Amino acid sequence: MKLLLDSISKNEIEVLNSVIDCYGVTSNPTIVKKHGKVNLFEHLKEIKKINVDLELHVQVVGQTKEKILKDAKNIVDALGSDIFIKVPVDKEGLCTIKELKKKGYRVTATAIYSEFQAILAVMNGADYIAPYINRMSNMEKNTVEIIKNLRRFIDHEKYSTQILAASFKNIGQVTEIINAGAHAVTVNPYLINEVLLSPTVNKAIDQFVDDWEITFNRKEI
Ligand code: E4P
């Protein structure tokens, strides 16, 4: 299982990288907008310095094959060939994924709202597919079934594509999608912090310390 952070906040990534086993970082133009205007390539180089092994997934903005190829080249020229190029799966995107794979790029097929869209991206050779879990849930789709079916399809047909589930709005969605067979998930740090900084857990820990102190009149073991 791979856990990635759906964020470009250096601070959040630095803190969580020291606490959990972070596999990488994903971004898209909306994540960059929320973070605030930065020189994205320089910013991502800084993020790599936090942990050189972090896998980076960077999204194109071009909407035609020509422009997507140009974006991909710019991303790789700036950040290196081990970067995953995120390409939204529409007609142009699918066609470009095929081309990018021929040229040796690493590709994450994104903006996936349906099982069929995902299957087409797998067939075109995407390294990862990123189904949008919460956005599909909002469309009343059974996301657990979709992930189970996709995993069965990939394993049965012996594709090497991995499911990198994205767009989570609560941690329950994350665990059910891991159990359904996703190879990887990308999660916003605030959802992880909600679990790690839970007042319920803190209360339990405080109670243990109080009970020890009442019994032994000290706070050390
Ligand atoms: C990540 O790769 C996706 O672009 C992201 O998870 C989408 O999340 P959202 O639905 O919160 O915008």
Descriptive notes:
It is a single chain. This protein is an alpha/beta fold and 221 residues long. It has a single domain, classed as Alpha-Beta Barrel (TIM Barrel). The chain is 54% helix and 17% strand. It is built from eleven helices and eight strands. Strand 1 (2-6), helix 1 (10-19) and strand 2 (24-26) form a beta-alpha-beta unit. The two termini are 35 Å apart. The relative contact order is 0.12.
CATH top level label: Alpha Beta
Within CATH, the superfamily carries the name Aldolase class I
The biggest beta sheet is recorded as: 8 strands, parallel, barrel
Average pLDDT number: 98
Count of β-strands: 8
Number of separate helices: 11
Helical content, roughly?
Answer: 40-55%
The rounded Rg comes to: 20 Å
Secondary-structure-derived class: alpha/beta
Biggest sheet: strand arrangement: 1-2-3-4-5-6-7-8
Strand content: 15-25%
Subcellular location: Cytoplasm
Main location: cytoplasm
Protein name: Fructose-6-phosphate aldolase
GO molecular function: aldehyde-lyase activity
Features:
single chain; 221 residues; alpha/beta; globular; binds erythose-4-phosphate; TAL/FSA; aldehyde-lyase activity; schiff base
Short description:
The chain has about 220 residues and is an alpha/beta fold. About 55% of the residues lie in helices and about 15% in strands. The protein has one domain: Aldolase class I (TIM Barrel).
